[in-house]
Amino acid sequence: MRRPESRRGAAAVLAAAWLLPAVAHAHERWVKHDYKPFDRDYFRSMTGQVLRLSLAAACAIAVIVALWYLVATVLLERLTPTSVEQKLEEAQRGSAHHPLLSLIRFFLDGYLPSAWLARAERVSVFIFARLPGLVFLLGARDGWVVMPSFPVSGTPGLVLRAIEAAVALWVLSGVFQVALGVVMLLVYTGLCVGYGLAAVDAIPVLASAFFYLFSRRGITLNPQQIAGIRFGLGVGFFLLGLVNKIYDAELFIGVGDSYPHLVAGPQHLFPWLTREAWSFTTALGEMTFGLLLLLGVFSRLTSLALALIFGNFILVFGWAEIVHLYPIAGFAVLFFHASPGTALDGMLFRAHVRVWRAMGYRTSFLLYRASVFLVAVATGALLMFGPLYLTVQVVPRLLGHLGR
Amino acid sequence: MAVYLFGLALCLIPLTLLAGILRAAFEAARRLTTLRAARFSVSATTLRPGDKIEARARVVPRGARKVSVHARLTCTMFDHRSHRLYASSLAMVPSPADGNQYAVSLRLPEYALRTGLVGDSPHVDGNTRRMLVVWTVDFQVRASDGAVLRRASRGFEVPRGRRPKTHLRRMSLLAIDTFSSIRNDMLFNWLVHLAACDGAITSAERRFLHDLLEEMAGMTDGADTDARVEQELRRRLIIDDVFLRRYVPMEARLEFYRALYTLARSDGALDQREVQFLSESLKVFKLTADDVKPIEAEVAGAPA
Question: Which end of chain B has fewer surrounding CB within 10 Å, N or C?
């Protein structure tokens, strides 16, 4: 009889720990972020500069998607040697193409038959698979779960740190990865329940969860794992901008007020940049690249850009941001892996078929271009402007209404 | 950092708009200054493989400008981008009564794929490819220097063509099969153009073409053969070179080159224009000079 009781007790301790009142310290939350008074209404109305910047971000997404389909994929196909013989020739003679052409192919997400790239991909996958273990060990030592956004203390904290250390050793061992994926999903669910909105900081954990969940013995990386990493990191980065820099703008403005050079640098280039605008444009930058990563458009360039952003965090804030090596490892996986296609390919095909039917089963390249335009605009409007409008215009009023 | 990257992303908007507007404005200005009117039509909206379709155009240039009008029968496969599978291009002939009216008859090949949507069911697996196959007549109005002044496209349906395969592996087989079907057509078309590229077709070249037609199509009547050569001279058959390189084995491409080179050598030394033609065909087939050196040595050393 004692064993079930002790198990129930442990479960209660765990549940209590997960359900601790939301401390709400995430990402921007764990570096100094004492903020001075600022214009909160700037982030609560889709008008003026906020509207212009939001529309510009949606247009940027539309233009990048259109450029991808109308320019990049065509160029890539032209530059890619497609026959088996050509690949053999390259293997025999080394690079048959000019290095600049190979570089262009690489950054247009093309496949390059290079032993060096294949090795780099294997190494990055190995690091991405094991790095969470080191991060968890660091958390167990320093008193937080998953990342410094989620501090734990007291007896429940001790229990959680012990569990975290055990999971870390499991991750490092590399065994039973599918079960590990389930555990990671449970960890994320626990963070959502315990820390509420701050759990957006830990969305990259989902990248690891899906990576482990879809892993198959003998296969370095399969399409489901890639989709999982894309989802975890893309959505994570998108929400990092939307929530931590727009919805909870005081977090990031507080970082700017604590480290004034962060705002002063961009202000030299964009003199109109107030602290509020700085927070908003930073959010738009993160959302733009997060969305592109999620969609798989210019995957390598986007991964590189995001890795640079995270690397910059480490340079600016030092050891405090060392956990960002973890998403950087994820970006490295996406950087070295040739992307087979984008999440929009199916949508574009169906849009083209619809237009083709609407035009009486006649088609031309003009119709195809019109379909690309439709998909690009829809992506910008629904995936970029839509969430911004909801966050800036709808949610604050809805919450205000509910509060009354 | 994200602010700077966002700034860079925003820069793409004016750059793309500027490039698009400049290009459209240039094309519109060129069209307005060179053409008074241009209208295009086709004689049918539904065809069977082997049927003929007439392409018609009324093009009125400004001033005494000389233009040529071309019609191209094209089969395009769309997935999330376009792949041109087949294109047969013909110069349109001006009407003797009205020099601004052009017309030409195009024949849909017997191996034409059927138009429509394929493989887009909710039960598709990873090995299934969805695609949209369309046939069009593409018109081009060109200036005397070859610059394209106006483009237009008219679609038609081929409901009884060959059914395309959707399974990825079968797609490759289909592609090879399609190429096998059009190979003779394409080979003969290219050979005629090669023979004519250094001026008139010599008697040695004509004999070679007659022999080939007899072997390929059983044509023995000299008048019929000459008519076919004239017909091929008027049209230029093109196939998507990326598609070719992806699906056609190297041996087939080398054999194709062997036929071209044999014809080029049939009237003695190679003319500069023949060398140019052969070099272009190497590029299309992604063959290198080293790949074809043994073939050239073999053909050059063979007794006439």
Answer: C
B281 shares a domain with B208:
yes
Report the SS3 class of residue B33: helix
B47: enclosing H helix or E strand: none
Q: Contacts of residue A269 in chain B, CB cutoff 8 Å?
A: 4, 7
Which residue out of A368, A369, A372, A388 would a mutagenesis test of the B interface target, given it has the greatest number of B Cβ atoms within 10 Å? Answer: A368
Residues of A in contact with B128 (CB under 8 A): none
Q: Which alpha helices (H) appear in A242-344, and where do they start and end?
A: 249-258, 261-269, 275-295, 299-317, 325-336
CB B70 within 8 A of CB B92: yes
For chain B, the straight-line distance linking the first and the last C-alpha, in angstroms and rounded, comes to 71
Query: Looking at the structure, do residues B147 and B183 belong to the same domain, yes or no?
Result: no
Query: Which residues, at least 6 apart from A277, have a Cβ–Cβ distance to it below 8 Å?
Result: A42, A49, A53
Look at A64 and B120 and tell me if their CB atoms are within 8 Å: no
* pTM (predicted TM-score): 0.73
ipTM of the modeled complex: 0.75
Q: Do both B196 and B228 map to the same domain?
A: yes
| B4, B72, B151, best to mutate vs chain A, most A CBs in 10 Å | B4
**Long-range CB contacts for residues A113-119, cutoff 8 Å, separation at least 24:** A113/A87, A117/A336
Q: pLDDT digits over B193-244, tens only?
A: 877 777 777 777 777 777 777 766 667 777 778 888 887 777 776 666 666 6
Evaluate whether residue B239 is within a structural domain. Answer: yes
If phi > 0 it is left, if psi is from -120 to 50 it is alpha, else beta; for residue B286 that is left
